[in-house]
């Protein structure tokens, strides 16, 4: 495949940037891939494993001459980084980011973007519970969604070029406006993460009472929660602070709903619980049909489990 | 391996009983495996796929002459089933169950158990989000815990014989008292399940506003929640009703803790959030060290992700 960009600059060298580099390299999508990270240790590791073609010690040098610049730093750092690179961006370049929140990133970055640079905010719905320069892999974006939230008036040609790069890395591209993005993600990602963190925190208190049995006997449900709660603390701190409004809205709905179920348990209302649990099962089916997961029983964790039909299916 | 029991009767032919049958057959642990299920459709399916050696249409016939009887029905049905089988149990037989709650099962079953029958309540910490006679597989219990909560005065020889069968199916056996079991499971399994159900229910409401985008863009965290929330509704209804006290206790702690995090988000207290998320990450490490999960990044879902070190590791 012909290169889509001549020189791609990755700012931040964690899971997402590293995976982008490996995916672009695999498919020959960039003439040259340059990387910068604030931490000298991260830069050293990236050099050691050859994560990008060239690691620079200066952020200005990284973005100079790049026709695509990718901000892959925590959401709370986007504004500062944008301010630092702004004077060094090439006219006609495209600037994108991979942050999990879009309104706050646009507010922080847009004021610094020169008139002749195309700013196209983005968010790949992909990740693992690991982070850092060694955690990336070329297949991370395959069959995943990559949402773009270009502000009104963005050059359609620049958007299409970026979308072409993303599709060539294996992802599906969709456009939506930033407030809508933030609401959808509050529901599907941000609030579930906060809840998982909370439950793992509760277990931690109880653990002191029961001498590590909580860890030893962690069943499937809790194991999934701990995987979620093992995600990068800095990234998630910023997500919650930067998508505050939507997360607080969904948290409010969640607590209401939880109290209704809690009351049903207290009152012994089995019919209500059964009806509720039957309905949530159907949503799972929708997710499998939407191709976002398989029906292989993950709780079996590769013990030769068949993807058999469910009792209700 | 020599058979541990001459005739094993499985009452209920869902995921757990089916997996037990396949595991016992694979290792030659039972002379004969007989099965019964209340639903004629389940019995037909079990016959069709040869899940057990013999499916009976009468529960009395199933348990007659069995030296091991396994109650593998929803927790709320244990008492009724125990009452039905009690007159047909063989003197000296062992009666066990696989329910996720232990105190309520003991209260419901023990009054019906004849003096000359060994009642040894049990709980395999294993399962998938699938259910029904086709969902079982021989490896389900491998490397998993199987908790036994024998009442005081239970014959140690009978306990050791049952533990031997369980170990031969690949599981690790541990004994504890029933109230302690119910507390530990409320933390590691029951409450996380309720929370996942609730979050999926909230998403279901929002879905109506955003036209299925919630399903389409479900990120890793939410996908794990939907997998949990896809579990068998009847089983879980009974778990919450039968382990009411412990679940309500843990739910109370959970809501307190969630409100503290919610307040930190509202107040913009990033330090508190970061400290909290860093602590929960350590718990995940404990679970991996306890051998209950691997460090392979599951969010990558078999896309060739390396089990690389984490940024904090």
From TrEMBL, chains A, B:
SUPFAM superfamilies associated with the record: 6-phosphogluconate dehydrogenase C-terminal domain-like, NAD(P)-binding Rossmann-fold domains
Keyword tags: Amino-acid biosynthesis, Aromatic amino acid biosynthesis, NAD, Oxidoreductase, Tyrosine biosynthesis
GO biological process: tyrosine biosynthetic process
InterPro entries in the record: 6-PGluconate_DH-like_C_sf, NAD(P)-bd_dom_sf, PDH_C, PDH_N, Preph/Arog_dehydrog, Prephen_DH
Catalysed reactions, as listed in the record: prephenate + NAD(+) = 3-(4-hydroxyphenyl)pyruvate + CO2 + NADH
Protein name: prephenate dehydrogenase
Keyword Kinase: no
PROSITE patterns documented for this protein: PDH_ADH
Segments for region (Disordered): 292-313
Documented EC number(s): 1.3.1.12
Family to which the UniProt record says this protein belongs: Belongs to the prephenate/arogenate dehydrogenase family.
Keyword hit for NAD: yes
Known pathway: Amino-acid biosynthesis; L-tyrosine biosynthesis; (4-hydroxyphenyl)pyruvate from prephenate (NAD(+) route): step 1/1
């Amino acid at each position: 495949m012909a290169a889509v960009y001549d020189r791609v600059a990755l700012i931040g060298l964690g899971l997402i940037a590293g995976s982008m580099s490996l995916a672009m390299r695999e498919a020959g999508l960039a003439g040259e891939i340059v990387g910068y990270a604030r931490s000298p240790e991260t830069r050293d590791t990236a050099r050691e494993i050859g994560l990008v073609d060239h690691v620079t010690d200066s952020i200005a040098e990284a973005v100079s001459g790049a026709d695509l610049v990718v901000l892959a730093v925590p959401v709370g750092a986007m504004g500062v980084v944008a301010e630092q690179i702004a004077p060094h961006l090439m006219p006609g370049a495209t600037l994108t980011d991979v942050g999990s929140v879009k309104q706050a990133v646009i507010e922080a970055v847009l004021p610094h973007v020169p008139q002749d640079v195309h700013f196209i905010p983005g968010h790949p719905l992909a990740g693992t519970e690991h982070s850092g320069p060694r955690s990336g892999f070329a297949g991370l974006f395959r069959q995943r969604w990559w949402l773009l939230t270009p502000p009104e008036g963005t050059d359609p040609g620049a958007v299409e070029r970026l979308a072409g790069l993303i599709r060539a890395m294996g992802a599906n591209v969709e456009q939506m406006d930033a407030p809508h993005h933030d609401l959808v993600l509050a529901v599907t990602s941000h609030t579930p993460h906060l809840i998982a963190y909370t439950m793992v925190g509760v277990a931690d208190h109880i653990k002191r009472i029961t001498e590590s049995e909580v860890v030893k006997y962690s069943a499937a449900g809790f194991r999934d929660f701990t995987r979620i709660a093992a995600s990068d603390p800095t990234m998630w701190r910023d997500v919650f602070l930067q998508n505050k409004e939507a997360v607080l809205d969904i948290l409010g709905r969640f607590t209401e709903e939880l109290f209704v179920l809690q009351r049903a348990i207290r009152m012994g209302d089995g019919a209500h619980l059964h009806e509720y649990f039957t309905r949530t099962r159907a949503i799972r089916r929708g997710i499998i049909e939407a191709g976002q997961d398989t029906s292989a029983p993950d709780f079996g964790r590769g013990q030769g489990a068949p993807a058999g039909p469910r009792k209700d299916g």
